[in-house]
Amino acid sequence: MIQAQKGTKDILPQDVAAWQLMEDNAKKVFSLAGFNEIRTPIFEATELFARGVGDSTDIVNKEMYTFEKSERSLTLRPENTAGVVRAFIEHGFSRQPQPVKLWYKGPMFRYERPQAGRQRQFHQVGVEMFGSAEPSADAEVINLAVKYLNSLGLNNLEIQINSLGCPECRKKYREAIKDVLKPYLKDLCEDCNFRYEKNPLRILDCKVEDCQKIFEKEEVKKVILGDFICEDCQKHFDDVKEYLSALNIPYSVNKLLVRGLDYYNRTVFEIKSNNLGSQNAVCGGGRYDSLVETLGGQPTPAVGWAMGMERLFSLIEKTPQNRLDVFVVSENLPETFKIVNELRENNISVEFDYACRKFKKQLDKAAKSAKYALILMDDELKSNTVTIKNLDTSEQIKVSRNEYISHIV
């Protein structure tokens, strides 16, 4: 038997209502804030992610699904910010009134060990705002993330923020991190040794227990928690915190928060749900002011975030599958088809028994799937009536064929 591939899952009919809720709420919440949906291709040129996401990241080094076609290297998208930035540049969005506010949803692909809430094909919903360098834009997208999670009934949230500063700030911070960690290189994991040369800030994102213990050493901790951001970046960060307080959004500053992608600068943030286990992050994002220019566009400040929808699905309250409005019980298929079409043309959901089985079997099936049984047997056909049975109360009435719809709507 051929089965779904490791790290992929079918979304079954009983779960689709919850997925539709996530998608519908995204459209409602983001549209109210003036964000428009964008849909980008599932695969892009490999170079887009190598340049955009960063060749020092685990995503580019270990996790991308890359294939050759017509002597071109293509990659299934492992995240969508780079693709949205590519579309922003390609379609001349920089000529539109700024800021340009976009949101997306869809499948992403990463080759990693499947675990709870994390698959090789997974889904993300996210927002991106281009054209505003103001700290108010940072607060706006964080606020939108919180509002979206609240709309799904998720309120037990923990918001962590940090500032990585500008390129000059990061340069000083990187050198300080390298200096203080140099004596411990032999004790750091293989990934951290690789990051030490490529992007030392990424070391702080390591979850290996032995590395975490090194970060807790007094001299290392002093550097990690030190203030390296310049006056302008500090002002920007202070303003973000002020706006979050004005929005009544509780937050904490986490100096170890660096995010896993190379393009972030200044504000970075994560939102965690206290209803999950150790893998409790449901949203991550930040500011990426250099990415548009890196990918060939004009210098454009930008900020955004993404959420894993599988993790959201594990948290939200599941709704039962929708019941049909009507099940037609009849042994006359030509008449059944007529009445089924009439109902559907009036936006009433309806099914019937394709095998035209005996009355009792049809009624049993109706009781399991619908709110009303619409009975159309010989007596009803002769008198041009239908019998409508409420399957919750067992009450039934016989009405004229010409006016039965008004008793259902």
Give a summary of the structure in a few sentences.
This protein has 409 residues and is an alpha+beta fold. The protein contains 15 helices and 16 strands.
Note down, in words, how this protein is organized.
- The chain is α+β, with helices and mostly antiparallel strands and 409 residues long.
- 38% of the residues lie in helices and 23% in strands.
- The protein has 15 helices and 16 strands.
- It has an eight-stranded mixed beta sheet with strand order 1-5-6-11-10-9-7-8. It has a five-stranded mixed beta sheet with strand order 13-12-14-15-16, sandwiched between helices. A three-stranded antiparallel beta sheet has the order 2-4-3.
- The longest helix has 20 residues, at 13-32.
Main traits of this protein?
38% helix; BirA Bifunctional Protein, domain 2; 16 strands; 409 residues; five-stranded mixed β-sheet; alpha+beta; Rossmann fold; single chain
